[in-house]
Description:
Elements lengths: L1 H9 L23 H15 L8 H18 L6 H14 L1 H5 L6 E6 L2 E7 L8 E2 L18 E3 L23 H11 L4 H21 L33
Parallel strand pairs: 2-4
Antiparallel strand pairs: 1-2, 3-4
Amino acid sequence: MRATMRMLANIKPERFLEAGNPTGLTGLFTHPSPRSTLLYLYSSTLEKLKAIPEYSVYRQSTEALAKHRYNAVDSIKPPGYEEWAKRAKEKVWKYRSVLMDQNQGPHRIDTVGESVYVVTEGPGEIDERVIERDGQDQTPSGSGSNAGTVNQSSQRRGYRSDIDETNWEPEPPLEASQILELENQIGGGLIEEVIQVAEGELKLLDTMIQSKVWEELEEKAPQGQWEYFSRDQHTPGTQEPPNK
């Protein structure tokens, strides 16, 4: 149904979805780079979850969902991806010193776990979170590393935005059919909706960690407080059919 809404909103289906076009949902527009955005968000979520003990049910459930969706997104690669990944890998190492200096340009390196991303922060007010990565081994030591970009609405001060020594190239876009396939795999509505949920979960993590939700309550709940919500407390068996 949601995919049909997007098609009707765009009137004429194209091979690639055009960023900024209506999706058919009010206030929600076509994301410029959903694949790389989700990979970055899920990587960040999995990294932050490490601050929560493994026995926490919240960590277990969130981690399982993030891993499942990360793998689903990572399994679908856009046309020309391998060629782009090779060029991106070369640029990361060629301009590593520039990317590590936050005052030298609009791009910088952001490390998430063992993955390396190239973050782009522009002066615009538009809320774009565009992340590109290549998923290939890029470090001389052999540890996993990813190259990419993140466009965020926040503006970083202290650099000349008109200078871009790296001339960073974004990841190729997914085809419309690939996005539809990914939406069907995840089953969470349009890919833009999935991004919103992933962003919300990542923000929620800070609150959960700050509140230490895995610890015991300072004041124990009264005995029987939660019995009302227990399974089969009010309908323990199958209801008998009415007498004829």
